[in-house]
Amino acid sequence: MVIFTTNFGDIEIELDTTTAPVTRKNFLQYCEDGFYQGTIFHRVIKGFMIQGGGFTAKMKEKPTRESIVNEANRGLKNTLGTIAMARTDAPHSASAQFFINTADNAFLDHFSTTNEGWGYCAFGQVTAGLEVIKQIEKVKTGMVAGHDDVPYEPIVIEQVTIKE
């Protein structure tokens, strides 16, 4: 289990231990390294998702390790409260950024091994703090430093706790 302590409250996430092992290991390594501490939820779209894990409050992108293989084809779905890896248009480009689904987003699930069909790898479930996520969804957003849907008030991951 991973707990994100944010300036809006705590979000507890239980990671899937078998379905997406590469993704889980990658995410936990970023957590253990303290990478997420001080990053923000930099993209918030009500009724869709909240995305974080890559930018500081000044919208400076943090350098990451190499990208990982996309394990979206292993069966987990992008449903309300799941955490998934963010990526570019390239299917195997996820590194540190993640998002939490604030709705059932089946269109993000794997359906083929084409660029359009790979989907986004879900690898865990929010077990506490869904009300915090819903509160984050309500913040005012706009364009900041060339990025859309950025909260005007930074939503900061202040601490990351890993519980066995």
UniProtKB/TrEMBL annotation:
It comes from the Bacteria. Keywords: Isomerase, Rotamase. It catalyses: [protein]-peptidylproline (omega=180) = [protein]-peptidylproline (omega=0). The keyword Isomerase applies. Residues 1-162 form the PPIase cyclophilin-type domain. GO terms for molecular function: peptidyl-prolyl cis-trans isomerase activity. Gene3D superfamilies: Cyclophilin-like. The keyword Hydrolase does not apply. GO terms for biological process: protein folding. PPIases accelerate the folding of proteins. It catalyzes the cis-trans isomerization of proline imidic peptide bonds in oligopeptides. Belongs to the cyclophilin-type PPIase family. This is Peptidyl-prolyl cis-trans isomerase. It comes from Pseudoalteromonas citrea.
